[in-house]
Amino acid sequence: MATGADRLLIPEIPVDIARLAELVAHDRRNPSGYSIVIMSEGANLGTAVPEEGPADAYGHRKKTNVAEYLAGALGDLLPGVRFLPVDLTYILRSGDPDAYDRRMAAFYANLAMSLVEKGIDGVMAGHRDGEFIYTDIPGKEYPARRVDPADYNTDRYRPNFEHINGVYKPQIK
How far apart are alpha carbons 53 and 120 in whole angstroms? Predict the structure, then answer.
């Protein structure tokens, strides 16, 4: 996986926390000595995440941070192992942009300004198949993109890498 993660938790597949703990323990026996688990927004931990704190004026209580909940559950199963839940947005903001990042930001900004000048709104700038585009902003009227469970190893909590077949394309002479 491009992220370097050992396990990836997705909404489409419920997580067995005990099984995940076994995998994390196995991963920690690798030379790196650690395991990285990435949890997608909406990941299904197979149980309701508890609520915490006092109820608001409408009777609603705040949900426990799901990453902290998972870290606690794994810590209960693997005493002595330290778990560090990290919000990915902090990591994304912590690095300096490289030349590619700066260039892409300038291209997106110029495309967005061109759209504003033309009076086009309700769209977003994008980059697809090597060209800059603008497209509709995803909303409720568009179906959510889902992972096909056939492409995911439900026992190992990561994508299937086996049986990847390429398409033969002969050299152009």
Answer: 45
Conformational region of residue 162, where left means phi above 0, alpha means psi within -120 to 50, and beta covers everything else:
beta
State the pLDDT at residue 173. 65
**Spatial distance between the Cα atoms of 26 and 161, rounded to a whole number of angstroms:** 19
What is residue 31's predicted lDDT score, i.e. its pLDDT? Answer: 87
Contact 12, 147 (CB under 8 A): yes
In this model, does residue 2 exceed pLDDT 70? no
Between 171 and 25, the more confident residue is 25
Q: At what angle do helices 17-27 and 66-77 cross, to 10 degrees?
A: 70
CA of residue 58 relative to chain centroid, distance: 32
Q: Does pTM surpass 0.90?
A: no
